[in-house]
Amino acid sequence: MTFCLACGKEFVNYYTMRCQSVIQLTFFLTTFTSPVLIAQEQATDILANAEQHITSGRYGPAIRLLEGYLADNPRSFEVLRMLARAFYWSGSIDSARQRYEEALSFFPDNVPLRIETARFFLETNQFDRTDEVLRPLASATNAEALSLLGTARYWKGDWTGAKNYFERALDVQPDHSDARRQLNEILAATASQVTFSPEFQSDNQPIRRVGGIALYTVYITPLSPLTIQGGLSRASIQDTSWVFPQGAVSLRHIFPASGLGIEASAGAVQISSRRDIELTYQIALSLRLPESITLKGQFERRPYFETISSFSVPVSVTSWSFFLDRPESETWTGQAAFQSLRYIDGNTGTNLSAWFLFPVGQQKTIKIRAGYGFSLQDTRDSRFDFASVTYAPYYTPLNVISHNLLLSFQIPASNHLNFHMNGSYGLIASENLPQSPTSGGPMIPGPPRSTNETAQRSFHPWQLRMALDFSPADTPLQLQIEGTRFATAYYQVSMARLIVRYIFPVHLR
Fold first, then answer.
1. Per-residue pLDDT tens for 148-174?
2. Closest among 74, 132, 124 to 97, alpha carbons compared
């Protein structure tokens, strides 16, 4: 075989050029990819070392290691996420939030990061930010994102929205345990129920009352319970008795976005000694404040049947009331209340009260609380009848002030049986006494002491309540037996009540 010299020379030059190109490409790849590979190896080593520190609870060394790497590589996804976790688990919430936000700004399309960031905001009670982070996934078919959106609404009190998201999550992933558990909690808490409550009451006027009431509650939505109630009671004094049929309908709704709640009820009561029906109605607004504190205001009209003479003389009272409630917690619970009353004859009254309870001791099962209570009751004009030495037609306290010691016990006898007892004792209490128009002296027994304006007497009001709650296992019944006895400036009362509640079964997921 012969070769042209010119062609042979050209042939050699071609392959020489190809070899030079390969060498140059290899040099380029080696030069520019080696740092990337080295950085990846360093990140892997740092993540492994940091994870060992975090697993052992050594958050400080892990944080320093991860922050040192991020100083030169600020867009490292796994390092940013692990650093945020380390800050969170060490208790540095603000630093963890900063790192999660930083990672989310670098990698907005990373779904696992978005879900983990939303879970962080959810667990730190930042529900609005949880919604914002998960909003791009709200229409997706990601069960975990839908479940977290439901949890955020559940914890905010939006049970209707939570129920919708949990159902969607279970449609996507039927075995999602968190979504199923929380949905079942909502379904169980909003099940229809009927309650029967017979009771007995006796006071030293003397009046004996026997009767009962039945209530049926159905949830139109998880945030809108409708209650229908009816009852019959009988009051007797020696051989004379009166019968009181009554009924009412009430509806409540909560607007979770604003924390506003509204409740309205209307009903009627009739006493057998009169033909006219007494109307009752109430409207209330409530507002949820930080730390679950609730501010509530209500307007109410009701008939008055608390004294003997009110059975024959029609008495009704309208009232404005305001309440500030702190629910039971690990620290303290309490309430402050103000009430302004106006009676049918134009007389007015004012009630003011406040109380609080603190935990006592460190018992794991028995809950003991002690505290202080204050109350003030006053009426513009007295309705004391000097001829009969009774209040007629209704009771009018005159500057009744009481400072009380409070005590509460809760003792769980078993998983299904609980005993409650609470009471109060008035350490310092006094009231102004009605003055006789002839003698100017007090007409009610008691140790009076003179003042410049009127006579006063001291007394010691008290109250004792005991209750037993029983919830049998695997049954829709709940039972409560309670007994109460108390003494005020005016009279003493004994009460006994049985509450039987039947909860209709619901279909759980």
1. 999 999 988 899 999 999 999 999 999
2. 124
